[in-house]
Design brief:
By secondary structure, the protein is of the alpha+beta class. It folds into three domains: about 270 residues, Rossmann fold; about 100 residues, P-loop containing nucleotide triphosphate hydrolases (Rossmann fold), CATH 3.40.50; about 130 residues, Alpha-Beta Plaits. The protein is built from 14 helices and 31 strands. An eight-stranded antiparallel beta sheet has the order 27-24-26-25-29-30-28-31. Helix 3 crosses helix 12 and helix 11 crosses helix 12. The protein is globular. The structure holds guanosine-5',3'-tetraphosphate (G4P).
Length: about 525
């Protein structure tokens, strides 16, 4: 196979949803089709169980497992598919956002009864920002569902994207009969016990009375609804989808493995091949001969007895080769990667090559941080992996004076992993940890103790937001920092950060200093 053919057969995507809409179930069913797993339930264990005594203990328990499910690669109908797992828990949304920088498209799962939920909206905002093509899968049609037309309206309004159904449900809940696949003009009938192995019935002409033989009285309703669909929604145009302007919609029931193969078949045909990536210097095309890639995730200390970390690298261009020397641009240092791993059919194995779209796991002893660029030598810096301005803050104190070195190292590495952000107050020199969720503080404390043998204490800090500041006028900046000295801090890279204790204080500062730009992500 040529280099170009290898690129063109790759589909790298993420499945996202509000918790409980069916992301895990759908992922698992897709893997079953790809032969990547043999039994249902294999992915399920990677989920934070509802009602677990402590969410975070559960996260800890799952951490070892989740490295295997972070990236799931499999072959299907000549395509190489890479599914990137995203954590469902909202305290880990930053992780999800970062993972979305490594995908070329996204499938959004929506619960047919609940419709668009808050987390779905947030995730869609990220996709919109990056112009990531999205497909919507309306799940749980075997349960009583909302009217499909009002669901379409809701998706359009709340996710702010045009929709185009490519399949249409025939009833729902106990009366769910199946779906008509508009994309390839076929009928698929739902039988709860048979779990989706029913054949598709090619059905070009839905006006044929034969339709009644299959679905009885629902035939007439289906005809009317399909006519309405054709009248209301624009003709499906793949370009529109690829540009992120239009979301094709499919219906099904992941639990019953219904509509999943239809989704997969359409997905491999319409979803984008690896897309160009943006760096500060230039746009990088996947077809370029030379290798480039970036680190979007670090998974550390899976085995506490070995300080093992895995850096997940997305290959953006060129062919990655094992044992070749590649450069970490941030460190200006070259490395030989001797045991890169890929995740195929649920097994982690050493790979000789990887192509654009692929994700490789690179064993790391502390050389990588999130956002690092790896290349063949060229100096470029990948963009799009911002830290978000945190919303929860605590002072962090050493609780065991004998272990201050361990604490510093632990905090440093956890920050590299992107668990939280560290700031140093310009006023009193104290260290402040900022996170997007409450859970991270527990995770930090626990991991510091168990992985670094260090103890920390948190002290409450009433703070609204930390934002990065910038101005074209150095004097204004100096004045600002002088006036707001008590609220100034430095981030890990030494950049100026304004810590506002309330929305009011932030607003006041913004009104007072019009020549200062306040940024709510670290990349500006
Ligand atoms: P998530 O990853 O998006 O959080 O959702 P997940 O797949 O875990 O699904 C959440 C619950 O919804 C699960 O039930 C799952 O079995 C159920 N579910 C998923 N897809 C469908 C569907 O198409 N139809 C129906 N009826 N249910 C579906 P649970 O009781 O929370 O978990 P479990 O005990 O069944 O594992």
């Amino acid at each position: 196979m040529t280099f170009l053919e290898e690129i063109n057969r790759r589909r790298t995507f993420g499945i996202v949803s509000h918790p409980d809409a069916g992301k895990t179930t759908l992922t698992e069913k897709l893997l079953l089709f790809g032969g990547a797993i043999r039994v249902a339930g294999a992915v399920k264990s990677n989920k934070i169980k509802k009602g677990a005594t402590s969410d975070f203990m559960e996260i800890e328990r799952q951490r070892g497992i989740s490295v295997a499910t972070s990236v799931m690669g499999f072959e299907y109908a000549g395509y190489k598919i890479n599914i990137l797992d995203t954590p469902g828990h909202q305290d880990f949304q930053e992780d999800t956002f970062r993972t979305l920088t490594a995908v070329d498209s996204v499938i959004i799962v929506i619960d047919a009864a609940k419709g668009v939920e808050p987390q779905t909206e947030k995730l869609m905002n990220v996709c919109r920002m990056r112009k990531t093509p999205v497909i919507v899968f309306v799940n749980k049609m075997d349960r009583p569902a909302q009217d499909p037309f009002s669901l379409m309206d809701e998706i359009e309004e709340q996710l702010k994207i045009k929709v185009r159904p490519l399949s249409w449900p025939i009833n729902n809940g106990p009366d769910f009969k199946g779906v008509y696949n508009i994309f390839n003009k076929s009928l698929k009938l739902f039988t709860p016990d048979i779990q989706g192995i029913e054949e598709r019935i090619k059905f070009e002409d839905i006006s044929s009375p034969e339709l009644e033989d299959y679905i009885g009285d629902d035939a007439e309703i289906l005809r009317e609804e399909l006519e309405l669909v054709e009248g209301v929604y624009p003709e499906y145009e793949n370009e529109q989808y690829l540009e992120g302007n239009l979301a094709p919609v499919f219906f099904g029931s992941a639990l019953y493995n219904f509509g999943v193969q239809e989704l997969l078949d359409a997905f491999v045909k319409i979803a984008p091949t690896p897309r160009p990536s943006f760096t500060e210097e230039r746009i990088i095309n996947p077809e370029e001969e030379k290798f480039t890639g970036f680190v979007f995730k670090i998974h550390a200390n899976i085995d506490p007895n070995h300080r093992s970390r895995i850096a997940f690298v997305k290959v953006c261009s060129g062919k990655f080769e094992r044992n070749k020397m590649y450069k970490n641009i941030r460190l200006n240092k070259t490395f030989r990667i001797s045991s890169p791993t890929a995740f195929m059919a649920s097994q982690k194995e050493i790979v000789e090559f990887a192509y654009p779209g692929d994700i490789i796991g690179v064993p790391d002893t502390g050389n990588f941080i999130i956002g690092d660029t790896l290349t063949d030598g060229e100096t470029v810096h990948f963009k799009g992996l911002p830290s978000f301005s945190p919303e929860m803050f605590r002072y962090i104190e050493n609780a065991d004076p004998m272990k201050s070195k361990q604490l510093a190292k632990g905090v440093d590495q956890l920050m590299d992993e992107g668990v939280a952000q560290l700031f140093t107050s310009a006023f009193n020199g104290r260290k402040i940890i900022g996170t997007v969720g409450q859970l991270q503080f527990e995770v930090i404390q626990y991991r510091l103790e168990h992985e670094y043998n260090a103890k920390c204490r948190f002290e409450t800090l009433q703070m609204h937001k930390a934002c990065w500041i910038e101005s074209d006028d150095p004097e204004v900046l100096v004045e600002f920092k002088k006036r707001k000295h008590q609220r100034m801090a430095k981030d890990k890279l030494g950049r100026d950060v304004f810590m506002a204790d309330s929305q009011f204080i932030l607003q006041m500062a913004q009104d007072e200093f019009e020549d200062i730009r306040f940024h709510f992500t670290s990349e500006f």
